[in-house]
Amino acid sequence: AAGGKGINVSRVAARLEHPTVAMGFAGGRPGDEIEDLLHAEQVRTWFTRQRYPTRSNVIVHDDEGKQIRISSPGAEVHLEEVEALEVNIFDLRIPDFLVLSGSLLKGMPEDFYVRVIDSAAKQGIKVAVDVDKELAEIVAAGAYLIKPNKYELERLVNAEIHNERDVLNAAKKALDSGVQVVIASLGREGAILAREDEVWKATPPVVDVDSAVGSGDSLLAGALVSRAQGSSWAEALRLGVACGTATAMTPGTELCHAALIMKILPQIKLEPLAW
Prior knowledge:
The protein is α/β, with parallel strands linked by helices.
């Protein structure tokens, strides 16, 4: 399967029949294969070619649901390739959202995401971010939306999170730093969406989890697609959690499918929370 956090967002958006373009680096025969796989899923691509092959990751999954992930570090990219990617990102027409996901490859400047956010802001593009190591810098740079999990949120605010109130306190700190929307992914407990004037929690039904790979990416994709189509943030969160739950029920890297998403959607419990 074509993998990677941003690619997963595009794959789920396409399954929701929303226009999407997958971007990033692609190199060698693995890069060609990624494009072929995405095109087969009706995902448009606009990759920047790199001279070294794209990495392959292996996930070993047993009958009990346990996984071993074998991840290669990825090939180093060169300055001219990074510059080409920056140009390509803004070659397309202004999107509803620009999603920045995953870690930076070796050779990329540490402030790459910050530079992209700055360029996007000048063009009025809303940036949604799902990263780990650079999250604090990205919040300070003015990202529109962040989607941390519990552990990433803890690192962002340098405090442990034990309960719902801790999540809200951490989200408030992120909002005070300039982010407009926080979607905190809480695994089986669902997710909490926080804005300055509203807070929502979406809780999924109890389901049999096969593989959680891509669930967070699916959550983000569903929420952004719903919002881009004009839904409220509450309904966007509901669709996002339905997508994440549906992905957890599929094997390996399969991700969610529209029929299962629609089956789960009415079972998502949506409730407002108070600051």
